[in-house]
């Protein structure tokens, strides 16, 4: 998969829908393509948030620590973003994300993520919507 | 130390000085004879006196004396010679005398030089010996740089002077006197003139130079301070950078240099004024000779031969005279320097030499209780940090000291470890004052460790074993020339008052180590490294270093490493993880490696320089041209440049995305933009443009950059050209590159490079920990290799003051260095402060268990930085405000004490 394909994928992410293609390509270039084996953790609840992930292929599961161990609260597949809340809010990871199949993802570092979003007002609105939704979802 | 330099020199070199004085006196005889000869030659054969008639003869070399109260003694009547043979004989005699004089000078100079060097060695040794014996307090006031500058530079001129201290005045005085007497004998009044002028010189010049000496002293002190400041800058470089005070330091140094310059310039002004006067006075005398001597000759009161001889002799006078004056100045100068240094090295309560006496026996045990009685400790400004503490620690006890940072517990530990001396009260071992016991007891039977431990420049192993090098226990074996060399070393050391302990001998007595069964020295080191959890660091140090080619074990280790490489590959296959590493294979393109690495396919010790050198050669350029790869890479580079320019052209240069751009600098974007524009208009690119674009392609890694410019066909092509490139690689290029060979060890790569032998797949973020885990498992199956690697890791250098280790490693090493010694008392003064609590607990537990099972039943006093760890100790001492407030068993202190509760609250 080359940069241009990744850009096509990123366009389908609602959070990035307002960003022009050139910026998305730059974002793709500045990000790392990462792979995870089945069962491998992308990040762990309580860790510091340093990057967000766009799932390119495969499925990831989201777990939250509960009284009876980790509870699976959601799954995410192609073109979904995980790990963005910790970056946007500057908090620790509020959930653990694990690959439930072999997963390929784009790892976008915190700096790059924020820089791209800040250039586009529409994205900011979208960001607020996403954050609000997640917060509503988690309470 | 002796205050007077002359006395110091005389005391240490008396027989040699007397001997050389005798030689100097002997040398005067041919010296005087050589004066007299020219007169004889001129007056005799040349002017013809005594050869009035052809066939007249004169006696050659009659030897006779007039001895007072005895009469005339004739040893040899002389050989009658005619005018020409007489001239020849006299001239030849002159030549012989010249040679004899030269030989005397040569012998005297070498003898003097050796004498001086020996004394310099003695002084330097004595100074360092005093440093080793200074009381600890002294070191709070001195700068290391100043002290080392004194030992190294300031005493240097003393060596040169030593040889001249007595010989020079005797020799020069003798020469001057000889010349003067000779002139006197020739003519009284001319002699008197020469004498008077000499007296004026000797009287006036040194007086004028007194100012010079004062300036010299000032120069010495300022230069020493400069050395101290420079050393401070080096030590404090981190702080200087952190607070942006580099310009303050620059200003300070510039001011000091300015001050030194002023002093030195002043010195020059005086020096050359004095020189001018000196020269003038020296030239005034010949003027008088020519004037008065000439007059006397014309009126016939002096013959020409006499005048020539007087003038000749006078030529010899200013030289010695000037040197004599110089000598006097040097004497004053070095005396001042010596006094300065001695003053600095003078301390009242030096440690007695007996306390530090060399003792190779390790039998003495310290099986008495260690007690502090009414102990008072003070800080530098006299404030009390410990007030009247009495405590007794019995052999075999484990004692925790708890309290806040300034509560005094750590000070007590310092006193027990003899780091500070008491201001009042006593520290005793049994009935003996701890400070009166020889260090061969206290420095071995008590082991002290604290976070501010110092590490010496050298290997990890040197530092780990530093604490057991008390005395040479076994002399080194020398053979042949080395044995002669050693004998010479010992003799010279004795002649200079230096000790002759052999540094190359074995200083490690296995008895003093916690020997681990039959594993000996190495086993002991491994055991303590495991306890402080430093083993993994040591292994990593080894893995990230290259194998020293001259090491004895190198071939065996290399073979094992290549085998381990195969094991790793198999293991990865077995676990279905072979995508973590893309191995280097002869006929395959390594997708995770850049194009250049795929093309050159080898390890380069210095990739930048090697690549630059290789691409310049016509060999490489021909291959690139003929294979067509040059064109392909040029097109590829063009594609990369286009994509990059398109991505980055509108970005401000400080944008964080530029961090991802590794193959081009942000400010090069416009350059490439122009280049691409030129290419669009102009079909034939210049050489420079071609190189610039091909260079871009060299850095390209498809999975990372993802521009889609590297297809299968091109990869195959690159592999093809790789083979061509290596097929006929000219010898001059072979040094730049070591070809990847799956079955051979890469000598220019690190051990880790050799084991992995491929590129990590950067897409797997856990590649490094996974490989480390798998590699660790595999390594455990090869204990021989593990051992060799640990030995290699122990050889790595810790840098000045251990700075190449991180803080954590330094703390651990400091503790390990104390643990490896067999002692009766272990004093640990917050050795682990700064480590996380889990690690602290691990290490404290492991260390206590290790010491408990060692069989010596030692006592352990541990000042804890983490109070709850007190539970591992039987007895607890609680300090507060410089006093011991609670002392008892762990349970009582925890249950009924207040300090413990406050500390963990």
TrEMBL record, chain A:
UniProt cross-references to SUPFAM superfamilies, sorted A to Z: cAMP-binding domain-like
Instruction: Tell me which CDD domains the record gives.
Output: CAP_ED
Positions of the Cyclic nucleotide-binding domain: 15-117
Q: Which InterPro entries match?
A: cAMP-dep_PK_reg_su-like, cNMP-bd_dom, cNMP-bd_dom_sf, RmlC-like_jellyroll
Matching PROSITE patterns: CNMP_BINDING_3 (PS50042)
* Protein known as: Cyclic nucleotide-binding domain-containing protein
Native source species: Shinella lacus
Q: What is the lineage of its organism?
A: Bacteria, Pseudomonadati, Pseudomonadota, Alphaproteobacteria, Hyphomicrobiales
TrEMBL record, chain B:
**Transmembrane segment boundaries:** 18-35, 87-108, 179-205
Task: Provide the alphabetized UniProt keywords.
Answer: ATP-binding, Membrane, Nucleotide-binding, Transmembrane, Transmembrane helix
* Location of the ABC transporter domain: 370-905
> Which Gene3D superfamilies does the UniProt entry name for this protein?
ABC transporter type 1, transmembrane domain, P-loop containing nucleotide triphosphate hydrolases
The positions making up the signal sequence are none
> Which GO molecular function annotations are given, in alphabetical order?
ATP binding
ABC transmembrane type-1 domain mapped to chain residues: 85-326
Q: Which Pfam families does the protein's record reference?
A: ABC_membrane
Location in the cell reads:
Cell membrane
Report the superkingdom from the record: Bacteria
- Topology versus the membrane, per the UniProt entry? Multi-pass membrane protein
Q: What is this protein called?
A: ABC transporter ATP-binding protein
- What is the source species? Shinella lacus
């Amino acid at each position: 998969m080359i940069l241009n394909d990744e850009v096509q994928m990123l366009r389908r992410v609602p959070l990035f829908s307002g960003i022009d293609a050139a910026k998305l390509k730059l974002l793709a270039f500045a990000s790392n393509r990462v792979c995870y084996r089945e069962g491998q953790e992308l990040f762990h609840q309580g860790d510091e948030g340093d990057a967000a992930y766009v799932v390119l292929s495969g499925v990831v599961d989201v777990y939250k620590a509960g009284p009876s161990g980790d509870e699976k609260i959601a799954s995410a597949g192609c073109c979904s973003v995980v790990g963005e809340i910790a970056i946007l809010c500057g908090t620790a990871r509020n959930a653990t994300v694990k690959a439930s199949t072999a997963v390929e993802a784009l790892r976008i570092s915190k700096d790059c993520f924020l820089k791209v979003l800040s250039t586009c007002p529409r994205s900011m609105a979208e960001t607020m919507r996403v954050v609000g939704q997640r917060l509503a979802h988690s309470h | 130390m002796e205050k007077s330099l002359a006395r110091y020199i005389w005391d240490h070199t008396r027989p040699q000085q007397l001997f050389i004085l005798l030689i100097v006196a002997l040398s005067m005889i041919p010296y005087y004879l050589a004066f007299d000869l020219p007169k004889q030659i001129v007056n005799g054969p040349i002017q013809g006196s005594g050869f009035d008639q052809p066939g007249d003869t004169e006696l050659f070399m009659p030897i006779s004396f007039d001895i007072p109260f005895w009469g005339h003694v004739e040893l040899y009547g002389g050989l009658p010679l005619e005018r020409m043979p007489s001239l020849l004989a006299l001239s030849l005699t002159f030549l012989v005398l010249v040679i004899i004089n030269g030989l005397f000078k040569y012998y005297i100079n070498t003898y003097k030089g050796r004498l001086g060097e020996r004394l310099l060695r003695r002084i330097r040794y004595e100074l360092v010996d005093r440093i080793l014996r200074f009381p600890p307090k002294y070191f709070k006031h001195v700068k290391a740089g100043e002290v080392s500058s004194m030992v190294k530079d300031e005493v240097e001129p003393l060596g040169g002077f030593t040889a001249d201290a007595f010989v020079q005045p005797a020799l020069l005085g003798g020469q001057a006197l000889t010349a003067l007497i000779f002139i006197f004998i020739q003519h009284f009044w001319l002699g008197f003139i020469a004498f008077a002028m000499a007296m004026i010189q000797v009287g006036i010049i040194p007086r004028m130079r007194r100012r010079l000496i004062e300036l010299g002293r000032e120069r010495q002190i300022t230069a020493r301070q400069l050395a101290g400041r420079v050393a401070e800058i080096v030590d404090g470089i981190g702080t200087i950078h952190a607070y942006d005070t580099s310009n303050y330091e620059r200003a300070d140094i510039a001011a000091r240099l300015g001050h030194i310059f002023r002093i030195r310039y002043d010195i020059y002004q005086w020096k050359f004024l004095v020189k001018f006067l000196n020269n003038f006075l020296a030239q005034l005398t010949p003027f008088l000779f020519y004037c008065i001597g000439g007059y006397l000759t014309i009126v016939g009161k002096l013959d020409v031969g006499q005048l020539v001889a007087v003038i000749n002799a006078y030529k010899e006078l200013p030289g010695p005279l000037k040197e004599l004056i110089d000598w006097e100045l040097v004497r004053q100068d070095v005396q001042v320097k010596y006094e300065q240094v001695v003053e600095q090295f003078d301390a009242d309560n030096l440690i007695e030499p007996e306390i530090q006496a060399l003792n190779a026996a390790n039998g003495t045990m310290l099986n008495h209780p260690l007690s502090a009685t009414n102990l008072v400790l003070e800080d530098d400004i006299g404030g009390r940090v410990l007030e009247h503490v009495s405590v007794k620690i019995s052999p075999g006890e484990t004692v925790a000291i708890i309290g806040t940072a300034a509560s005094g517990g750590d000070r007590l530990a310092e006193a027990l470890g003899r780091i500070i001396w008491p201001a009042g009260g006593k520290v005793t071992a049994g009935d003996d004052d701890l400070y009166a016991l020889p260090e061969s007891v206290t420095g071995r039977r008590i082991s002290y460790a604290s976070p501010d431990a110092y590490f010496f420049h050298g290997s990890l192993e040197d530092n780990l074993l530093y604490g057991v090098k008390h005395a040479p226990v076994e002399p080194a074996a020398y053979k042949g020339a080395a044995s002669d060399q050693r004998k010479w070393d010992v003799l010279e050391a004795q002649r200079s008052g230096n000790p002759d302990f052999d540094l190359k001998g074995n200083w490690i007595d296995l008895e003093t180590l916690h020997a681990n069964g039959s594993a000996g020295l190495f086993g002991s080191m491994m055991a303590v490294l495991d306890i402080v959890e430093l083993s993994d660091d040591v292994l990593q140090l080894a893995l990230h270093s290259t194998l020293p080619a001259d090491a004895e074990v190198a071939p065996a280790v290399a073979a094992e490493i290549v085998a381990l490489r195969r094991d790793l590959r198999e293991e990865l296959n077995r676990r279905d993880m072979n995508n973590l590493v893309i191995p280097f294979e002869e006929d395959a393109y390594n997708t995770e490696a850049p194009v250049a690495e795929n093309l050159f396919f080898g390890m380069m010790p210095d990739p930048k320089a090697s690549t630059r050198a290789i691409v310049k050669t016509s060999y490489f350029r021909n291959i690139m041209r003929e294979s067509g790869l040059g064109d392909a890479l040029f097109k590829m580079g063009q594609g990369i440049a286009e994509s990059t320019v398109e991505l980055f052209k509108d970005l401000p240069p400080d944008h964080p995305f530029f961090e991802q751009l590794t193959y081009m600098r942000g400010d090069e974007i416009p350059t490439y933009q122009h280049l691409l524009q030129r290419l669009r208009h102009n079909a034939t690119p210049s050489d420079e443009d071609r190189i610039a674009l091909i260079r871009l392609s060299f850095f390209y890694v498809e999975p990372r950059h993802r521009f889609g410019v590297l297809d299968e066909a091109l990869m195959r092509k690159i592999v093809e050209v790789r083979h061509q490139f290596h097929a006929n690689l000219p010898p001059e290029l072979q040094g730049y590159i070591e070809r990847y060979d799956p079955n051979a060890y890469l000598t220019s790569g690190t051990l880790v490079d050799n084991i992995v032998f491929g590129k990590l797949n950067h897409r797997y973020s856990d590649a490094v920990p996974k490989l480390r885990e798998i590699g660790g498992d595999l390594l455990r199956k090869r204990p021989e290799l593990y051992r060799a690697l640990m030995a290699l890791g122990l050889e790595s250098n810790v840098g000045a003051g251990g700075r190449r280790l991180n803080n954590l490693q330094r703390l651990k090493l400091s503790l390990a260095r104390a643990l490896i010694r067999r002692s009766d008392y272990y004093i640990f003064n917050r050795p682990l402060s700064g480590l996380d609590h889990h690690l602290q607990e691990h290490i404290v537990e492991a260390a206590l268990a290790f010491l408990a099972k060692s069989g010596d039943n030692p006592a352990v006093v541990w000042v804890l930085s983490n109070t709850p760890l007190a539970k591992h100790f039987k007895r607890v001492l609680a300090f507060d405000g410089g006093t011991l407030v609670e002392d008892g068993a762990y349970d009582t202190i925890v249950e009924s004490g207040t300090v413990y509760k406050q500390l963990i609250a």
